[in-house]
Amino acid sequence: MSARPSRRWLAAAGALAAASLLVAGCTSNEPQESDDEATQAAQVPGGENDEPGDTVTIGFSAPAADHGWMGSITKSAKDLAAQYDDIDLKVADGTNDVNLQISQIEQFINDKVDAIVLLPFDGAALTEVAIKAMKAGIVVVNVDREFDDPTAARTTVLGDNYGMGISAGRFICDELGGKADAKVAEIAGIDSLPLTQDRSRGFADALGECGLSVSNRVAADFTVQGGEAAAANLLQAAPQLDAIWNHDDDQGVGVMAAIEAANRDEFFMVGGAGSKNVMEAIKADDSVLKATVIYPSTQAADGIKLARLLVQGKSMSDLVEVEVPRTIQLYAPVVTKENVDQYLPTAFQS
Q1: Is there a single domain that holds both residue 290 and residue 320?
Q2: Are strands 155-158 and 214-219 parallel, antiparallel or unpaired?
Q3: Which domain holds residue 218?
Q4: Tens digit of each residue's pLDDT (9 = 90 or more) over 306-318
Q5: How many domains does the chain have?
Q6: Structural domain includes residue 5
Q7: Furthest C-alpha separation in the chain
Q8: Is the pLDDT of residue 39 over 70?
Q9: What GO cellular component is one of the record's annotations (predicted)?
């Protein structure tokens, strides 16, 4: 999950369009006939991007899979690479040791891979070695946690932490229907991380649109144990609540345990990230869980696909632009009982 400053709720239209097209698979529709020669020249034949090309060797490094979302990041990347005969994926062991991750990238540089897809444990700490890779002629795709220097990567794939807060807040506003005295609580992740700060800022901004604010707030640590402890403290301090937003579905397992232990059900809860167990609870509609906000665990898979396009000299063929965009920010939709079947196939297991 991102550990860099925020993005606006409504990102530039081009970036959002690019994200949608990327998820669709970076392939185009059949070009339409046109008398405009300039338009014809800009079009790319349908399916060209997925046709086999020269083999691309990609080094991949991410933090340790110590929770469901991060585990899905690596699994999705491997699964995507396996779909292409022209991708040779080299996967480094997941690590939360910055120095070890730097050494992994150094090894990829020495091995002269064609591209590196990197979700850094610490974006600032991995910036220098990423720049070194770029200077060595290796395409670097930065995933989720941004480097300090934009020249450290050819392109960056991001989630939308500020947008998650906006989505959660607006959903809660809609559900509460203008109840002016509603009590809304927030269970955040790690407060020292910019991603948590961005989510909280977006949440506060969205609640402010309907005249509400956060009445009770606690922070956990993205773990089941941390979520349970934080939620227990929250519920003890707040005898009456109308809604809760929990930033992370992995820690939400513990949050739900605390709620059940306290025998509380007077409120509804919105999750964050998009785990399978939360989506199944939303579909069953038999608990306080009524929605979750997606933070895609497919970002590294998108990064693998982009690295292949970049090394093979291709573009995102549904765009007129002849180059892969420099930044792609994915959307943060709200999953409810009404649309959960659409999102279940991409859910991760907590």
Answers
A1: no
A2: unpaired
A3: 161-294
A4: 999 999 999 998 8
A5: 2
A6: no
A7: 70
A8: no
A9: cell envelope
